[in-house]
TrEMBL record:
Gene3D superfamilies: 3.90.550.60. PANTHER family: GALACTOFURANOSYLTRANSFERASE GLFT2, RHAMNOSYLTRANSFERASE WBBL. GO terms for molecular function: glycosyltransferase activity. SUPFAM superfamilies: Nucleotide-diphospho-sugar transferases. Belongs to the glycosyltransferase 2 family. Coiled coil: none annotated. The lineage of its organism: Bacteria, Bacillati, Actinomycetota, Actinomycetes, Mycobacteriales. This is Glycosyltransferase.
Amino acid sequence: MSNQPVERLQRLLLPRHGEPHDVRMLYLHEAEHNTVRLRWEDRGTLTLPAGTEASFETYFNAFPASYWRRWSQLDSVILYLQTRGAGSIEVYRSKVNGTRVHVASAATQSGEVAIEISLTHFEDGGWLWFDAVAETELRISGGWYAPCQPQAQTMPDGSQVGPFRAGVTVGIPTFNRPRDAVNALQALASDPEVDQIIEAVILPDQGTQHPADEPGYHEVVEHFGERFHEFRQGNLGGSGGYSRIMFESLTNVGDSPYTLYMDDDIVIEPESILRSVQIARYARSPFILGGQMLNLQERAQLRTMGEIVDPRTFMWSPAPYVHYDHDFAEHPLSDCQDPGPCPRGYSKEQWAAKTSRDLHRRIDVDFNGWWMCLFPRVVCDAIGLPLPLFIKWDDTEYSLRGKQAGFPTVTWPGVAIWHMAWADKDDAIDWQAYFHLRNRLIVAAMYHDGPVQGIIANLRKSTFKHLMCMEYSTLAIQLESMRDFLAGPEHLFDILESSLPRINAIRKEYSDAQVLPSAAQLPAASGAPGVPLQDIGGRLAKVKKLRWLYKGLKHSFTEAKAEHHDCPQVNLTPDQARWFSLSRLDSATVTTAGNNGVVFRKRDRELAKKLLKETWQLQKEIAERFDEMRERYRAARPELSSRESWEKVFNE
């Protein structure tokens, strides 16, 4: 071991001034017995008053050692700190179950601390971190370093590429979020070290409200100078925006070794960009690097550690040992006690989430969302551009394509953005439901080699839920999804821009798709006694729901009462609008996920029968023709992902 830091991998990172306590918990823990507060003048230097302690066993400052062991060239890392004052640094590691193990100690009086730590003990999980104890006032800065320069990387065919410089092209597609887009650009320019490695910024503007009209735009464009490239184009969806970024970065804009995708409606932790590039440079073999999503509305919550595609249903699913919406303020990384036997009223999943033990495991994934994702140039050159899917499943497909070619996707802790959690959106039932289903079927045809029965059974279960929830517009546009899937891959580019207007026209025919400003615009709810408005949870949830399923199905065979179509029976919040509530009703208003209006759902027995019959027939046809569709979509993939095909679209 050399014990000499060569390149920094991860900075010591402190919260922005003014952050609330729960968000500060992502960065550091102040000891409960501290009698005075810790201080930091900037985001990289911490001052501990005499007699205080701080722990960096936190999301942004602990070092995810198991990921570095699995995916990097390194056998060891160095904790290198610059210090001033008397105190001590205590280094710890965790086991796969979160158990803490002391690694090393160092006094701070010399002015610097350099501790090299082997990555041997991190095969399946574990983090590294340090705690600081101040005897006198103690100042600390620094981070985690590599003991060597990055070396060449091994491609799937055994050839060598690299090593690569620290340079990245950042792409941000935007559609009618001009303020968000400008904020994202300003965030990129705000950190001098991040700014130094950004070689180009690409902004595809697909909307009618332009960032160029927003205050601050011209200043930030001037800051980037010749590095900034804006492209105005029609609304080609996320896949069209991201494909434009990849096309330009590979063809016309510089030669950065890495391209980083970012959504426009996010809050970025700029350090994440530095970490992404260093992770990619030190990779043993090239891979797609995914950033994690923190909840923009509950900023101490991590949406997920990683996701897979369920091999039976071909649907997104949390990876094993992953629990959605982990709250670091309630359960910090150090909260690793054994939760004990699962008590009555909790499912095993709910009870396991009451601790942070599983966050110490290394999580392997199938894909990562494109709210933040970094692609090595060599990967893009090898597997092509995204498919013309508009939105939904384009990120999943690209990761599955990469995995098939030998370039896996890795979702990396401590690399993250804040984004609106998808649970706070109506995208499973609004216009996006068309793309959800159509693109899921397309990607399944390309990559699902097992029986199709699991997919069809899952679709039928979803169909009955939509019917019981009176989501008729969703079913109507899902019929279009299935028809367009069965029409084959030849028309995907042709309908790239036309699908959304067509779907929106269909939705206008259904009351459940029309948003009213408020339920107050309708008569007061007449009431519906006996309908459950709380979630039916716990270990016996499935048994409890059988009774409500029977009652809901029985009610669905009756004719709806006309007066209930003039006056809603109940006003429901989104969490109350579940099938076991709505299936007993003739009508209800349901508040949108964004809390900005309501939709008036009205039960229509004849319409439900018609939609069910058509849906069932198309699902049957998909099952019968799925092998045929596999052949057609797989044969078309090279053309659908080629630069030449996308260039024609961009030049129209």
